[in-house]
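User: structure tokens for MOSC domain-containing protein, please.
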Amino acid sequence: MAVSEWYGAHNVTDPEDADPHLATILRFPIKSLDPERRDRATLVADGALSGDRRWAIIDLPPEEPYDLTTANVGGNGDYVNGKKTDAVHRLRSRYHPREEGGPAVTLRAQAAPSTDERRFELHDGDRNRTEADVHADLNAWLSDHFGRPVHVRRDEVGQHDDRDRHGPTVISTATLREVAAWFDITTDSARRRFRANLEIGGVPPFWEDNLFADTGSVVAFRVGDAIIDGVHPCQRCVVPGRDPDTGATTPGFRETFVRRRRETLPPWTDCDRFDHPFRLMVNTRVPAESVGQRVAVGDAIEILEQKSV
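Assistant: Done. Predicted tokens:
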């Protein structure tokens, strides 16, 4: 549904008549693997949501003894992620919280029988055991799946590719529906391809483009009682162009995306940060005063102001 069509279908004639609210919260306990839905989440310093990307799969054998203080988490290519291999798409993950004996994860290789699952404990800060020890079975299982030595690494604040704009990423449900229609895929497939933390309901496609401004400015917006700064439209990589279950490439994904993004570009997207059309989703920062604040599904969302940085 194009932007203009959305207004007609929802009896809305002006963007200001929309009803923005937090519709979905997703966090990704293990970077690059499946998300888990949350009813609420806590904003953290130097990261996005508490527990988001806390663990990551690394393409190097662990140091012995493992020393987290010297580990490189700068996002410089050491992660095993969808940018490096489509094998990550063929892993299904299901997480178990503390009340279910966690933190733990159940993994299944997509090509394996549905009964071929393994549950693994996740290291959660037990300083009496090294990560290499507690994750030995998990590391071996993942190394077998990827066909090369890998290991799991933990970082409490999260392991994000963008180490500057590392707040929760934001998109709207209507945007996901619009993009899904371009490729004749489901909205959930689009959701799993673009991997946003916070999803906004009650707004037209690309409404979230209101949440960034020209270089030198950020857009402060409220989610419930928390303030988040919208900074930058996210530049996309190869991951959204792959089927999230199989890793198969969608033919002509980038070319179609760029053409349709231009055709549906709303007037409020106009700013110097949007320098090419292969961008979707908003990168944010969590200001100090919002650290520890909680956001919840159903929270109202309000744009507050542009401010210089």
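User: Anything notable?

Assistant: The domain at 3-28+162-308 is CATH 2.40.33 (M1 Pyruvate Kinase; Domain 3).
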